[in-house]
Amino acid sequence: MFKETMKYILSIVMIIAKILPIAVAAPSIGDYGVTCSGFDEQLLLMELMPLITQLSEVTGISPKQVLPIVYGNLNFKFELGDYPGYSCWSWLTCYGSVNPLTDPKANGLLIHELGHRFMNDLNMTFDELDLNIGYLDENGTYIHVTGVNPMTGRYERTAKGYPADERPYMQHSPSVPVTGQTYQEDFADMFMAWTLDRFSDDEAGRLRYEWMDRFVRGDTPMKFANGTAHCEDCKILFWRKDLREGICFDCYIKRVKKRPKQIALGLKTNKKE
Length: 273
What we know:
Helix 4 packs across helix 6. This protein is about 40% helix and about 15% strand. It folds into 2 domains: about 1-100, no CATH class; about 125-255, no CATH class. By secondary structure, it is an alpha+beta fold. The strands form 4 sheets. Strands 1-2-4-3 form a 4-stranded mixed β-sheet. Strands 9-10-11 form a 3-stranded antiparallel β-sheet. A two-stranded antiparallel ribbon has the order 5-6. The chain starts with a helix and ends in a 17-residue tail after the last helix. It is globular. Strand 5 (about 135) and strand 6 (about 140-145) form a beta hairpin.
């Protein structure tokens, strides 16, 4: 509700700014440390505002500073071309004959790409990520949601936890051949759904939300910005809300090695400490 309210307020401010351009200055994407080319700045800001709001709440960093601190430099590009439709990538460039910000089904797509960027910054393997989710239903039957299915021993990504196996709820569905069955696309879609509160209202949706919420709050990567390092040449920090401070990535890996875990109800897990 808070995110929707913020988006509504931003849209009202933009409307007023168009009516009274001298009296009211519309928020600029540059005010939030982001640059772009080929995209409409106001549409891009509306696309990113839910993520700005979420990360600001998680980290305590001001909305206008949180994206560059968490991600570093962000430059979004749209390159018009002959490619039918559009294709967007984690280097934040979209190609094609259609601007994705004008397509309702692409709502959240750039946040999906920032989900890839978020995980790439951490450079985590699947074992370290431990994105395995499942639960027991009321009859004691195991329901697999995503990750390695303990019943088969294979990686199996499903659409459980989303309102539908289609866009905009998932930007890279598990039904997409080859690449749909990857944990990278699973993470990016979950990151998007966490940001936009788009998980389904059921056990699978709640478990997906809880996993991603715990992950982001525990392992938000922060680009080093204040000149103080926890160890020599430290570049990336983890923001720990409970400690209200950044923890050096290298120190975190070497000394702590804690990872967020999703425990399937009633199932044994190999918990690392």
